[in-house]
Amino acid sequence: MIRRNDFVVGVSGINAADNPGPGTGVARSLLEDTTLGARVVGLAYDALEPGIYMDWLFERSFTLPYPSGGGEEFVDRLLEIQATHGLDLIVPNLDVELPLYIKYADELASHGIQTFLPTMRQFRLRGKDKLPEVAETLGIDVPTTRIVMSDEALVEACGEIGFPLVVKGAYYLAYTAHTLAEARGHFHAIAAQWGYPVIVQQLVRGEELNLVGVGDGRGGSLGSVAMKKVSITSLGKVWAAVTLKNPLLATAAERFVAGTKWRGPYELECIFDPEQQRLYLIEINPRFPAWSYFATGVGVNLPGRMLRHAMGLPLEEAAAYDAGRFFMRYTYEMVTDMNRFQDVVMRGATL
Length: 351
Hints:
By secondary structure, the protein is an alpha+beta fold. The protein has twelve helices and 14 strands. It has three domains: 125 residues, Rossmann fold, CATH 3.40.50; 129 residues, D-amino Acid Aminotransferase, Chain A, domain 1, CATH 3.30.470.20; 58 residues, Dna Ligase, domain 1, CATH 3.30.1490.
């Protein structure tokens, strides 16, 4: 039996708003592994991230400097949190912060802060501009994709692909465009917010299938769960879903972790054409998705399994899950004292 309170785990991505981060689901999963006894702290970038105030999930929360700043300042803040509260392992859940964590993983480990992340080479593989190359190794298809850096290239890509099509940021945002004017508007909005490149991609029709899993870093899997989206928000985030077992998707996931020796969590976003029995790879995310608690709810606690593996603890074989389990997201209102918000703004931490 593992002693309680052995591990303090920092979890980021706790912005549980209309575009929810994965952090609250990851924290919930860690706490539901009751024999693990992890203590979870929230790592936020803004005082208005709702997870900060969810004290049933996070025993304390701390703000970090934005990852676009200097790495040394970022590491110093993590070491400060470790010194004042303890910090044994961090589960980062935002694409934008992952390069910093990967870069400084060895330095953090030298101070006793573990991570379980892909290498920088693996991280670059999941870039949207690399999808055709990756999809070929997985034995599945990919929509026609063009990397766009200018208005002239956008016009050329739209003419080649045809409408409707999807305009995407390299890390975030995806919009459907039915005309060149719409495509231009989305292109400039994405470039202004996230920079270049911008991706223009063929719109593929079919069922939206996603799979969340964790690779062990040696070509094996610590478990995975697949689902089909039933309802999405205006931002394209899943609101309701159902578990399924699709052989093409399962095989693609096995090939992905085996071929890349992926280390850490990942998500495959795909479109399945049931008439042609074709699976298209749309995106690879190098982290837990916002819906990852769904896997825990059907018996496959991926954050808990990853923590056990990362810390060298005994790990049983992943449980099988049933197809046809239903997931529904909901909103929830919290009422707290204004002093808590002021503490986060002024001191960078909850008390």
